[in-house]
Amino acid sequence: MSDYTVRKLTADEWDEVNFPRPKENEFDRVVERAISRRGFLGGVLAFGSGAAAMSAGLLKPEKAQAQQATRFAFTPIPAATDSVVHVPEGYSWQRLVSWGDPLFSGIDAFDSAIGGAAADSDKVFGENTDGMELFVIGGKQVIAVNHEYTNRKTNLPQTADGVPRDGQDVLKLQNLQGIAVFEIVENDTGWTVVLDSPFNRRITQNTPMQFSGPATGHDLLKTAADADGVESLGTFNNCGSGKTPWGTYLTCEENFNGYFGATEEPELTEQIADGYKRYGISTEGWGYDYHKWDPRFDTSKNPNEPHRAGWIVEIDPSNPKSTPVKRTALGRFKHENAETVLAPDGRVVVYMGDDERGEFLYKFVSKDAYAPGADTSTLLDEGQLYVARFHDDMTGEWVSLTPDTTGMSEAEIAIFSRIAASKVGATTMDRPEWVAVNPISVEAYCALTNNSRRGVKPNAGGDWTPVAGPNPREANKYGQIVRWRPSGDDHASETFEWDLYVMAGNPTVHEGDYAGSANINEGNLFNSPDGMAIDSTGLIWIQTDGDDSDEGDFAGNGNNQMLAGDPVTGRIERFLTGPKGAEVTGLCWSADRRTMFVGVQHPDAPFPDGEGRLPRSSIIAIKRDDNLPVG
Ligand code: FEO
Ligand code: CA
Ligand code: CA
Question: What's the predicted TM-score (pTM) here?
């Protein structure tokens, strides 16, 4: 970095010196066609320069340069294919908690032979750790974390193939998902979970919840168990997370469709059938088999039950007795995360991806402004839901989803947001995963993980998926990260400019569009960006959930990993490699930022307990050996 600033190279020149590229190739031509005005490689760096200029308001130029010089406070590590976690020299990691670890005393320690006791399954750290946030409550540090889904063969090791044998197996799976809230403390031996803390809580797929916002009480939410359509049981496939300025946790229901099935052909209205088709609800489900043991999940008996999932749920981590609230104004789709930021006038902006091939990127803007100490109970109920439309000239707009623009009622827009967004011609995206807002520059990033159907097939609503705009590669195997800057430096604005921060690829295997953008090189190969967070210094942490075969198109990528990216220069370096089989997902920091907590989801054995033991999803704590902050 210092070379770049001292020599006053342009960012393009710096990149060319450090990561020389072949002369013009098909990739350049594809880009040229896709982006007429400035070409997105120029755009990446031109936009980065703009970001530097913007941050000059917060940081004097010389300070910004000094920060750049220390941006990568680590020596990048090589790709790995083994079954442990690697971090750079000068850093260390320890395990904080793993699937099956008790949150309360009196619970048996994890038993690998049975995959944890079924009777304790709602009192232990659940399976498949994912999005997480840390809260400081009354001086205590409390983590809220998602348990996205289960690995049935691992969680039910007594079964031959992970198929539940009875209602007790189903209940165990339901209990191992949802959310865990627990206090942590750092002592001489490192970080540990505080057993029996008054904050400790498990929320499962059976925890009572309330609906709020425009869909509340709508006929499509009414079931035999709740004739008023105002309550719901449980939360499903909790993927990414968010944190509000008023200290609540947002958990995001993603692949909820997989939990439902039918014991006989359901009789559906046309509207419900259209919704099932768009959201992928089938008679078979995804193998959980809940519907065979629990009629709530049998769509032939409860056709509205799937409408009660696919939401963002707000949870108060300071009050373990509080009832989680499903905020229907934020729309119903396969929610990835909920990145929350305040507009200059105090309105709350929530950015949200819908992670499915060819689905959309959304945002919600509250009607009222947030004021510290004021009532926040309706801020996420009243406001406007928008969907993104990207143009090839590198501008874009947020299109409001209203009865006027969609011909649907407000409740229908909430319940069938995808269908509403199709009606306004939203841009089909390459699977929007996490959105991250830069805290020191008015810009946001979204990981577009990959999309095998780009330019090949329409989405489930029949919207075509053109090779264009921020999705410029057919049958996109590697993914990219799109970035936008809202007009007027206001995240509530209805227009923006965008560019691509990075196109993942493999220049050791391909020339052309699959080589990736100029900031991809042999030393930082990755695919399928997914989790993302930007730290207090503006460094982008990128987590991957991709092909870890280390072969063919993915040779040299190794296991899933976490990298750090400089938004100004575009430079990206590898910080962590996960164990074989795992996805690296979920990231938060301790209050003093001297510890970074990272999630390791669905590793293969022997991580972390060794040979002959079941693999366990785990949160790890990473520190610098000199105990300086890590973000
Ligand atoms: Fe649960 Fe889209 O990741
Ligand atoms: Ca994800
Ligand atoms: Ca993913």
Answer: 0.91
